[in-house]
Specification:
Layout: H1 2-25, H2 31-34, H3 40-50, H4 64-81, H5 86-100, H6 116-143, H7 149-160, H8 163-174
Length: 183
């Protein structure tokens, strides 16, 4: 049981850090946010509200990730008050099911979990999915900051509607560190 509690607490901390980074990446001036203390649930709501608002042409994740993070938060909060019990098991089951929805090919059911060891493995797997998904979203946010020069180039070129310029702008936006190799 201690293994799963540790996984939940650490996973929750990683998610909170990633939510902070996503929120900051969407700010022109993040300094005022650094002076306030927000609870996890507030950070989750802010991140879900602002994520990708400046990326109208990029397909954004549906609400599955936010639900999975919310269920991880509920499990963590339940563990803060009770280490064992039916409600902890139910919250863990809900979090696993929600995280499994992020992976279209995953067919595991919580009915397949027969032992405490299997439950720990599934809890860790679910938390890993949530963190991986959220980390990818953070990367998209960092590569596409609202005030980035790469984004301004993309918008300016897109306004001219020259496909080659748009393709060039996209390569700058997606791979900002890439240097062109001359032949």
């Amino acid at each position: 049981m201690q293994d799963s509690i540790s996984a939940v607490l650490k996973g929750h901390l990683f998610c909170e850090e990633l939510l902070d980074q996503i929120i900051i990446a969407h700010c022109r001036d993040p300094l005022p946010l650094q002076k306030i203390q927000l609870q996890f649930n507030a950070k989750l709501k802010i991140a879900s509200a602002i994520y990708g608002n400046h990326l109208p042409d990029i397909k954004l994740p549906d609400n599955k990730i936010w639900d999975a993070i919310d269920r991880l938060n509920k499990l963590r909060n339940e563990l803060a008050h009770k280490i064992e019990g039916k409600e902890v098991i139910n919250k863990a089951r809900e979090m696993i099911i929600s995280a499994n929805r992020l992976d279209k090919g995953n067919k595991i059911s919580t009915k397949d979990i027969c032992s405490a060891d299997e439950a720990i493995v599934e809890i860790k797997r679910a938390i890993s999915k949530i963190i991986g998904y959220l980390d990818a979203m953070k990367a998209v946010s960092l590569l596409n900051k609202p005030d980035s020069s790469e984004r301004r180039i993309l918008i300016a070129m897109a306004l001219n509607i020259d496909p080659s310029q748009v393709a060039r702008a996209l390569s700058v936006l997606v791979l900002p560190e890439k240097k062109e190799i001359s032949e």
